[in-house]
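User: Some background: our group keeps a shared notebook of sequences we're curious about, and every so often someone picks one and asks for a predicted structure to add to the entry. Today it's my turn. The entry only has the sequence so far, pasted here. Could you supply the structure so I can complete it?
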Amino acid sequence: MIDIDYLNFLENILTDNRKEKFLKVLENRTKHFTIAVEDIFQMHNTSAVMRSCEVFGIQELNVIEQRYGKSIDKEIAMGAQKWVDINTFDSITNCVDTLKSKGYQIIATTPHENDCLMDDFDITKPSALFFGTERDGLSEEILQRADGFLKIPMVGFTESLNISVSASIIIQNLTNRLRNSEINWHLSENEILEKRLSWAKNSIKDIKRIEERYFSENVK
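Assistant: Of course. Here's the predicted structure to add to the notebook entry:
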């Protein structure tokens, strides 16, 4: 449950422009789609995917760190880690089970010939879009457990794209179609309040000291 008094206290520290920006951005945020990346060896690619999530309004990024366990490259992410929720998993099974339990269908992005083309993809169902490693693609476990497959149409000699490029193209396409649909894709009121609180905390320097002062004065 969100402490509205605490949220108001923090937002009073922010400028009006910052608060208005939060509300405007949150109007376009969604959890209808979520992105998952599997054991990305080059961490700057995960950081770039996170940046695409932030730019196009995807609120959650799921990172499987079964083999490599590297940290987010903040320079590449360019602050996106402050605004996107990062869920980390130590195994493919844990990630897939968690996303399925939240009601997502598992969609594997692959360049295979018989996969669904991006423009034909059914956007009505909440979907977790999985992207694989640069070298090996998606693991066999994800391919076996996938509810569907998705690919970008290509007409050149090259058969694949860098993962960060593929993710950006797919995310932009699907979120644009989503916003032009009648699907209820917005965050809930409570989710919006949660993000306002989280983003306010991320925007305030010396937040720990301010929190300590607030709670010492207001919690009895």
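Suggested note for the entry: The longest helix spans residues 163-179. The first strand starts at residue 33 and ends at 38.
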